[in-house]
Every structure is written in C-alpha cells, then in structure tokens.
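Our platform keeps sequence and structure together, in a single record for each protein. This encoding replaces a full spatial description with a residue-level series of whole-number codes. We quote a single record here, exactly as it is kept in our systems:
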Amino acid sequence: MASRTLQAVVFTHLPFEDLGTLEPRLLDRGFQIRTVDVTTANFPVPEADACELLVVLGGPIGVYDAPRYPFLTAELECIRRRIAAQKPTLGICLGAQLMAAAMGARVYPGDRGAEIGWSPIQPPADISPPKWFSFLFHSCLHLFHWHGDTFDLPVHTTRVAETQLYPNQAFLVENFALALQFHPEVTAEGLERWYVGHACELGTRKIDVPGLRAAAARHAPALAKAAHEFWNGWLDSLFA
C-alpha cells in the first residue's frame, strides 16, 4: 500500500518572502506544498488545521497591526488552534512573532532598533539546544536578520538562540513547534527580491543595498550548507 502524501501549508504575507532553502528539503521528503496568501485568504483554512506541517513566513507588518490588516486576527486564531492541538508548526520572523502572540506573549517594537543584516546567533548560556540546532551555531556562520519587532518568551517554551541585540531569537514548543526570529531560509539570489520589495524601508533606514549584497555574497553560501543540515535535522525530529 502506498504511503500517505504529507501536506505542508505555507502562509505567506509577501510573494518574495518564500520557503527558500526549506522548499527542496520538503520536496525531497515527498511533501505536497500549498501556498496560501493570507492577505486575501478566506479563513478558516481547513487545510491549515489538517496538514502535517504549517509554515508561517515573514512580512513587514506587526502583530499589533490587526486594526489595519484584519486578516491577522484570523491568522492568529489559526495558529492558536494549531499549537493547542500540538501539531508541527514553524514560524519565521513575523511568523515567529505570530506564534508568540498566539501563545499569549507580548510582541512590540524593539528598543534597540532594527536588526537588519548578517550576524551570528548564539545558544543561551543555560540551555542545551537540540543537536540539529547546532549547525547554526558555528563561530564563522552568519545568519540573516530583518526585523524591527521583538517578543517576550511565551510560557511553556524553551529559548534556544539569542543575539547581542535581542535575546529571544528562537524558541521551541515542546517537540512539535519552532519559532525563528532570523532567516535561515534565505539565499543571495532570493534576497535580490527583498532589496526591491523593501526599498522604502531600506531608504528610510539609510541601509546600503550594495553592502547587503556584498555581505550576502560572503555569507549566504555557508548558510545554505548549514541550513541544509539544520532543516533535515529538524524534519527528522518531527517525521522520522
């Protein structure tokens, strides 16, 4: 008898902030991927409750922007149900903030300014993260960051990564959900779309696009290799 096909539902807020290096890892495992543009979706989305994996990606708005972007309220409720049911869930950047809010934690503008660019992450001093997370802690590895908001650590979660600017960079919900404030999924080529799509923010913050591009050329190849192992290890922990 043929094995059942695994389903991954991906919530996107912008077309160019996509799965990146996670997509081929999911396809290699036989996942069928359905992408949902949550900005125009008709909630509830039954597939998001029933699928084997829900991935919530990034975007330039805040969790607290629901009065201007009402879909956020329905998206939060979907994530809340998913976590309550203890079903595999991944949030990246805004997705991580939505997970934190869905679990009752505060999400707010960071008081140390925006964290945009390439820098390392570190494990918290008092925590031993899962072995599969160690691929992102190599001393020479730089991760890509692009966020202005941060969040308090939700209760009943484990913080597994930090930076010098913001301590809450990643958390685990038992063994079924993972929230990442940073972006292990990006590639140098894919970031070219970000530079255009977020041109207004980059200009307002006076961030040098050629500088970001040069940093991506230096750091993205090593990140792609580390992310390959990271994604495989994390997926093994869920579905092996």
